[in-house]
Design goal:
The chain is an all-alpha fold and 231 residues long. The chain contains twelve helices and no strands.
Length: 231
């Protein structure tokens, strides 16, 4: 199977801010009171991209809606046509990061039966998704403690769901005799930690001259070595 480039993977799975905002508008998430879907998508993209910039610059908790309106180029009244509160904005980002990762992982793994191929594909798909939407994932990780309690629980559940994908593949590999008898849940957590390190410490990896494909190869090799060491 030909390995996807970041560009082809992003295009295939619609992994850009505008595409995600178009999906939000189509689903009518939030208080979006604008008739034109194109205008709503354009403005919601400006709002979310401005949110990600401000959160990275000063923290989401310190950001005000007035600052967000100014950063996005909308009036405060215009902002309220799309979101009713900061909590709602955080909920939108959390919900769509979670469902996008779930959708992409399922699509990438479809039709792949062999556990080792599934593991490599899952690792690569996770890394390419977080690379394409790096600011979204970084925001969710760094600002999760500011979410309301229900959204916080959903974020934790989404984290466990993505780990479960890897744990299930590892158990499949154990059943097929590829991997040894180690705790699949712990192994999946170790894999997830390596995957998160890519977007949480991007500057460090950039200084080492790594790109996402090289990092994916490293994580795949490290995971195979970890699992094979217990065979």
């Amino acid at each position: 199977m030909e390995r996807p480039s970041l560009e082809s993977f992003t295009a295939r799975h619609h992994l850009d801010s505008r595409s995600l905002c178009a999906q939000i508008v189509e689903a009518r998430e939030g208080t979006i009171a604008v008739r034109s879907a194109q205008a709503a998508t354009d403005n919601l993209t400006r709002i979310i991209e401005a949110t990600l910039r401000l959160a990275n610059r000063k923290g989401f908790a310190a950001m005000t809606l007035r600052e967000l309106a100014r950063e996005s180029g909308l009036s405060l009244g215009g902002l309220y046509a799309y979101i009713g509160s900061k909590d709602e904005l955080a909920r939108l980002i959390q919900a769509w990061v979670s469902r996008t990762l779930r959708r992409v992982m399922a699509s990438a793994l479809e039709g792949i039966e062999d556990s080792r191929s599934r593991l490599a594909t899952a690792i690569e798909a996770h890394l390419l998704t977080t690379e394409a939407l790096r600011e979204w994932f970084f925001f969710l990780y760094m600002e999760a403690h500011h979410l309301a309690s229900d959204e916080r629980r959903q974020a934790v559940a989404a984290e466990r769901n993505s780990e479960q994908i890897f744990a299930d593949i590892i158990r499949q590999g154990q059943a097929e005799g590829h991997y040894g008898a180690m705790n699949a849940d712990i192994a999946a957590g170790l894999v997830k930690a390596m995957l998160q390190d890519w977007y949480l410490k991007r500057h460090k990896h950039g200084e080492r001259g790594l790109n996402v494909a090289t990092y994916a190869d490293t994580v795949i090799a490290a995971t195979e070595a970890l699992l094979a060491a217990r065979a």
